[in-house]
Prior knowledge:
Helix content: 25-40%
Keywords: Oxidoreductase
Protein name: Gfo/Idh/MocA family oxidoreductase
Domain GFO/IDH/MocA-like oxidoreductase: 185-259
Shape: globular
InterPro entries: Gfo/Idh/MocA-like_OxRdtase_N, Gfo/Idh/MocA_oxidrdct_glycsds, GFO_IDH_MocA-like_dom, NAD(P)-bd_dom_sf
Domain Gfo/Idh/MocA-like oxidoreductase N-terminal: 30-143
Oligomer: single chain
Amino acid sequence: MTTPASPSPTATPSPSAAYSSSAPFPGPPVRVGLVGAGPWARTMHARMLAAGPETELTAVWARRPEAAREVAETYGARAAASYDELLGSCEAVAFAVPPAVQAGLAVTAARAGRALLLEKPLGPDLDSARALADAVAEAGVVSQLVLTKRYHPATRDFLARAAGLEVTGARSCYLHGGFLGGDLATAWRLEHGALLDLGPHLLDLLDTAAGPVVSVRGTGDPRRWIELTCEHAGGAVSQASLSGAVNLPRVRTRVELFGPGEELVYDTAGLDHEECWPVLRAEFAAAIRAGRSTEIDAGRGLRLQELLEQALPR
């Protein structure tokens, strides 16, 4: 799952808050079913999909029926009695569940011909991620990753500017204290740590901004602090510091690129992450109607999972 950037993940804003869009969407809204009813499902997936106009939240299914019913009623959807019922009510499925759960259920949805809105990482390990990516490719369905930062205009501006740079080295960090307690201190995060949860974000940015990563190695404990060293195809070397178990007043995400020219810095401290969701929703719906995934798809998720596997401390 993606780590929420907002400081109040338990709040459930109005479905229309910060999600309205005045741009006309060609054709009827995409009917999306949601799997999961936890804090991230409530505060991001459900309200984003229900806000439209590009999507319509049709049904919610979770292992806890009462939780699914609460989310569904809040956003004008219905609670599905089973996963099969959910699949029968929609043309796309969004997942807001732990990686091990997503990896299995998403394969079933792909084989049923449903488009997929997937969390990162794709699965708890490389084998499960590859099985999911293979199922998506074999079924020919549209897929898209919730790599939150990729949908913010500031991130896209940073990556566009980075494309014109000669990068010699880079350093980056993604740090917060969410694993110390609260909604983010979930079982899978506490087991796997920051590498699987936060690593996809930084590896995606470094792989895109500094050139394709050809090797990565990690040191430390992913449950406390892990340091990654990446070598890039163009000769650049980068560092990434990851932790979800440090006491900070707010999330700290930063990427610095260095080379013969001026440094280029990307910092999320001043970004409003609410700007990401309308972009994500619109691009997912447009990809479904066009029958063609964006570059941020299950294939990209598999690429990141391969890097995560390399980075595991041995």
